[in-house]
Amino acid sequence: MILPFEDMPSNSRVWIFQSNRPFSALESKEIEMSLNLFLKSWTAHGKSLLSSFKINYNRFIIIALDESNNSASGCSIDSCVHFIQKLENKYEIDLLDKMNVTFKQGDFFSYKSINDFKKLVENRSVSRNTIVYNNMVVNITDFLENWEVPASKSWHKRFFK
After folding, report:
1. Per-residue pLDDT tens for 97-108?
2. Which of 135, 85, 83 lies closest to 114 in space, CA to CA?
3. 3-class SS of residue 91
């Protein structure tokens, strides 16, 4: 069962998948349709999961799961990862590589490897105030408070001396 993202409980678990490139308008619509179909049939041990999703900046897929009634199982998480892999193959995008950083430079998004991000820090091309996307957040409250933040307020701060 799918709820609007805004209606999900604040302690709902989240997974964030960042793309190595922005989605086109058509891709975003198709991905939304695919997410709706997948989440409507998403189950754990044969029981429906109460979930939601949103696509931010045509680049991030955020899936939320209310585990108060039914928790995700290993198999249900595997099915979600398999679904994301299908999106990767269909759209020739990378959504599962957690060793990359997305950050804003003005109105533009940059997607770099962690090593390249470290070099940008060393060269002072990015600062502690650079807006980064902390895809390690665990629930909706954490997402709302700690996902889109200055580098100084995320795990990225360890790259600054």
Report:
1. 988 999 998 889
2. 135
3. helix
